[in-house]
Write the structure tokens for this entry.
Amino acid sequence: MLNKLYVIKIGGNIIDNEQNLAAFIKDFAAVQGLKVLIHGGGKLATKLAAQLGIEQQMVEGRRITDAATLKIVTMVYAGFINKNIVAQLQANGCNAIGLSGADGNAIKAHKRPPIEFSEIDYGFVGDVDEVNTDLLQSLLHQDIAVVLAPITHDGNGLLLNTNADTIAQETAKALSSLYDVELIYTFEKSGVLLDVNDESSVIHSLTHKYYKELKMPAYGTGEPKIFAGMIPKLDNAFAAIKSGVSKVIIGKAEQLGQLITGEAGTTITNN
């Protein structure tokens, strides 16, 4: 029987708030067993770029990473935010190590090519090729929690900015051959909602069949029930399930303990 492993993605709404981050880290430290934490950068990179006079460009919510921005996100994500989380975990009795993709060759990626037939070039953005499961396994087996920053490398000396949700998904998929992996995405909502304006409308269990019905209702039966911003996250969740992840849970970071026990959030399974 495979050991349980939790791969947990923390959202920017928690990173941007010192009190919320401290409370989350306390909850994460209390999670029993093997665990990996993936974080993004919140608003700090954007704030620092503004202070330095470096203009930021966003396309469909994704940051264009030019050479100057790459320096900033590397400093912020793999530097201050990553080490601040690790230091706070140590203070809560949880031994942890913070890594970027370059450290220990943890995550290799390739530079995303410009989008065909358009002028969109994401710059120094990386798409994941390989997760070093041997490295992560060796750390986890020493009871060290791994904290991953969303900075990867291409093996030729180039650092790349990679979406943190993608890092979480690829890490969970890669480790699913070694562990019974549960992937937990935390964000500002209570879970997948039937009504985006009603926090009490959480769908507690979501199968792929039900998801398709909600995303594309039968002709003439009304509007889609899943709002557009959730679709990429859910598509990634079901892709992870198909690749061996046993369960994906989506919900509020403030309810981490209840997410793990199934008392809160939305649980996505392969049924």
